[in-house]
Amino acid sequence: MKLRYLTRVDQIDALSAEEKSMVRMVEERFPFRSNEYYLSLIDWSDPFDPIRRIAVPDPMEMEGAGALDPSRESNYTVAPGLQHKYRETVLMLVSDMCGTFCRFCFRKRLFMNRGAEVTRDVTEEVEYIRQHPEITNVLLSGGDPLIMATAKLEPIVAAIRGIEHVGIIRIGSKMPAFNPYRILDDPSLPGMIRKYSTPEKRIYIMAQFNHPRELTPQAVEALGILLSAGAIVVNQTPLLRGVNDDPAVLAELFRKLSFIGVPPYYIFQCRPTLGNRMFQVPVEESYAIIEAAQAQVSGLAKRARFVMSHATGKIEIAGLTDDYIFFKYHQAAETANIGKFMVFRRNPDALWFDDYTEPAADVPVPTEYMVV
Fold first, then answer.
1. Which region among 100-104, 114-118, 239-243 has the lowest average model confidence (pLDDT)?
2. Which of 164, 237, 291, 338 has a CA positioned 20 to 30 A from the CA of residue 366?
3. Residue 159 confidence (pLDDT) above 50
4. How far apart are CA 93 and CA 82, in angstroms?
5. With contact defined as beta carbons under 8 Å apart, do 165 and 135 qualify?
6. Smallest Cα–Cα separation from 113: which of 88, 93, 136?
């Protein structure tokens, strides 16, 4: 099924003239892109519809707080479009296009300045990976790699699979949610996965379903095709105000994902990206929402870790007491920090790790596990 893509809010017939006028200024700053399928999931009679919040520009995006590179990805760029932040893993930006531009995207800088960071010729990047035997995982991201034709994506996958020490190729994609027909109508895609996802070296699809209504029959069928082709499919989502910040909604998402064999993998604290303030939920409130959601589901549905993709590493929010919050480096740019445990006094207004400024020195934790 060939879908029509929309690149201007004026093309959304369901918006009134007044609504279009209100968001044109937003569109000029943060580009809009979506398609007929994804917009059809919106209940246009509901001004607070969660799918609308994901896809349609909102004047609140113009609030000035945030940075275009909040996790300082530029610090870890070692070749055009290639980031090497964690010892075993590199991230390759292969696309600056998506099926829909999420309004909460943490890499919206790619859409604002297309071509600036994404690599088109991966020769240099593949050679870098080949020269670093510690790299066992390669994550293809963007943008969305599955927006590319399989004929363009396959040579990249083949080149990486040809490197002996790379055991896992990950493809980060929201296309199963944005446009499942990309998978349903292209038999060459599962064919490629069957070829390069081997019993000893799998391809992982890092899907992103943010709300249970995205799990339509078409999306579930598309996920089934990927699974049948030999891919391992997991889901990750940020916690988003107005989208999935309700424990009942989040529990339904976890439950449905577990039923179809796509386990929740990560729940991200929404990054403080420019334009994202409307989506941010305080860290401690996020933790409470996630705990309340996971209390409603089976063990197979509650495997996701709640983390922040901080400039220094992937920081897990490990727990709360009445007075303290506990963090742990799940992964870190400095390998010595991996597994480090951190204790801070609670701050109910904190939106990001940097908002916790004073470690709780009066808590009986060995000093070698205390990190500022």
1. 114-118
2. 291
3. yes
4. 6
5. yes
6. 93
Q: Which run of H or of E encompasses 243? A: none
Look up residue 5 and give its two tokens: 């893509």
**Token pair listed for 13:** 């017939």
DSSP state of 273: B
* Alpha-carbon distance values, 204 to 140, 194, 262 (Å): 10, 12, 11
Lookup result for tokens 């994902």: 257
Residue keyed to tokens 């300082």? 72
Question: In angstroms, rounded to a whole number, what is the distance separating the alpha carbons of residues 281 and 239?
Answer: 7
Among residues 139, 143, 229, 152, which one has the least CA distance to residue 184?
Answer: 229
Which is it for strands 324-332 and 313-320: parallel, antiparallel or unpaired? antiparallel
Helix locations, 229-296, DSSP H: 247-259, 283-294
Beta-bridge partners for 327: 317, 342
DSSP secondary-structure letter at 80? T
The 10 Å Cβ neighbour count of residue 322 is 5
Asked whether the beta carbons of 129 and 89 are under 8 A apart, the reply is: no
**Which whole number is the average pLDDT over 186-205?**
98
